[in-house]
Amino acid sequence: MAPWSIPRLAKLLATAKFQVLIFLLVVAVIGNLNALVDAFLHPEIEYFDDEHLLVGGIAVTVSGILLGLVILYARHLQEALGKINLLESFLPICANCKKVRSDEGAHKDTWQPIEAYISDRTNTRFTHSICPACLKKLYPECAQAAK
Fold first, then answer.
1. Are 64 and 81 in contact (CB under 8 A)?
2. Alpha-carbon distance 83 to 123, whole Å?
3. CB-CB contact of 103 with 89 (8 Å)
4. What is the rounded CA–CA span in Å between residue 134 and residue 88?
5. Residues contacting residue 95 through CB under 8 Å, at least 6 positions apart
6. Alpha carbons within 13 A on the beta-carbon side of 11
7. Across-strand partners of 113?
8. What is the Cα–Cα distance from 108 to 118, expressed in whole angstroms?
């Protein structure tokens, strides 16, 4: 595999250390942007001028907060994608009672009703009803009265 292949680069970009490094570099550039522009356009103005320090400090604070929120939101989306992938993967379910085997966390290797399994992992809440075919099969007298 090449030293800079796509899978290797994707793994590098996903590491927390790399994300923190990029975060700090972006915040540092944003904080110094005003002073850097003035250094090229107005070389007579001192780099560590009071105005540059004030504007840079405000820019660092605001950009740090906003970028931090973006990173938190991205991690939240990664967790949600992980849950979606888990729910879309093969689900070990009992052929008889329809209980689901859990392979994660505190419920490892335990069997629980499918309603509980899905409710624990999503915002789905269940309510029960009966379909017309089962109504006819299990309660024929009620099916006749419902017509």
1. no
2. 11
3. no
4. 28
5. none
6. 5
7. 99
8. 15
Domain boundaries, the chain: 1-89, 90-147
Hey, CA dihedral for 31, 32, 34, 35, is it positive or negative?
A: positive
Strands (E), the chain: 99-102, 110-113
The whole-angstrom separation of Cα 106 and Cα 115 is 18
Q: The tokens of 78 are what?
A: 């990664």
| pLDDT tens track, the chain, 147 positions | 556 677 776 776 777 778 788 888 888 888 888 888 888 888 888 878 888 888 888 988 898 899 889 888 988 898 888 888 877 777 888 888 888 888 776 667 789 898 888 888 788 888 888 888 888 899 888 878 876
Q: Residue 40 burial by CB count (10 A; 0-12/13-18/19+): exposed, middle or buried? A: exposed
Pairwise CA distance, residues 129 & 42, whole Å: 75
Give the three-class secondary structure for 94. Answer: coil
